[in-house]
Design a protein that fits this description.
Blueprint lengths: L2 H16 L4 H11 L9 H18 L1 H9 L2 H11 L1 H7 L1 H7 L6 H14 L12 H13 L7 H11 L4 H29 L11 H28 L2 H21 L1
Helix pairs in contact: 1-2, 1-3, 1-12, 3-11, 3-12, 5-9, 5-11, 6-9, 8-10, 8-13, 9-10, 10-11
Length: 258
């Protein structure tokens, strides 16, 4: 991996982590277009870029995070409930990781993301308070979104809106829910690296490229999250749905037909 590639991948991760178009799907798409081999071994680089965007979340939602531990214990409990489905995903990790080795199914995943974004456009039911069942259902969608091409932010925000929560509430819960998800993914991979190094495929990437990916993904993430908050206020998720359809067609032609 060259420095230019690590910078570009960092930009892709930073922007697409927050925009509802799937960061993992775009990373896999760009890595394939760059002709990179051993895509399975690039998972650690992807996780490092995710940590860069995690830092963005921690800074942007610092007030909400502090409130969780001081006042809003109910929201904290809902976040715990919403994180539980990821434990089931962890048991299927070998199967999930195989999906990162090929871009063949990206067309279908992007299409699913588009359908989710379209589904919540004109939904107007409103709830006063999030219940445990709501948090669990949103968490289940986050678990499904480990599949490349299914947007984590898009699926959780769309599900929250379909369950009757406002756009602002959906965004805040979605990104607070991302914190344990990203930390869990990184911890699991690092634990596997320590305990079972023979089973972990790590591409030969210089430490400098990891650092560049981290820094650039953080800076791009700041831009992406700011842009998303402006978009949410205008309720323009449908444009991202059309974008996902276009990317789905591109992937179908390039990775399935050709």
């Amino acid at each position: 991996m060259t420095s230019a590639e690590s910078i570009l991948l960092g930009v892709v991760q930073g922007l697409t982590e927050f925009l509802p178009i799937s960061s993992s799907g775009h990373l896999l798409l760009f890595q394939s277009m760059f002709g990179m081999k051993n895509l399975h071994g690039l998972i650690l680089f992807d996780l490092v870029c995710h940590v860069g965007t995690l830092l963005t979340i921690l800074i942007f939602f610092s007030k909400q995070i502090m409130t969780l531990f001081r006042k809003d214990r109910q929201m904290l409990f809902n976040l715990v409930i919403g994180t539980l489905p990821l434990m089931g995903v962890a048991a299927l990790l070998p199967v999930v990781e195989k999906l990162f080795a090929t871009p063949y199914w990206l067309w279908l995943s992007f299409l699913i993301t588009a359908a989710l974004l379209f589904s919540c456009q004109h939904w107007s039911m409103q709830k006063a308070q999030m219940r445990r069942r709501d948090a669990f259902l949103i968490g289940c969608m986050q678990g499904v979104a480990v599949i490349p091409g299914i947007s984590r932010s898009g699926s959780t925000i769309a599900t929250a809106k379909l369950l009757g929560f406002s756009r602002q509430e959906a965004v805040v819960f979605s990104f607070l829910l991302a914190i344990p998800a990203i930390l869990g993914g990184l911890s699991l991979k690092l634990l596997q690296l320590v305990l079972q190094p023979e089973k972990v495929m790590i591409a030969d990437i210089a430490l400098k490229e990891y650092f560049l990916g981290f820094i650039v993904s953080f800076l791009a993430g700041c831009c992406g999250l700011y842009l998303l908050m402006k978009i949410i206020r205008s309720d323009a998720l449908k444009y991202f749905a059309w974008y996902c359809i276009a990317i789905s067609l591109f992937c179908f032609v390039n990775f399935v037909l050709l």
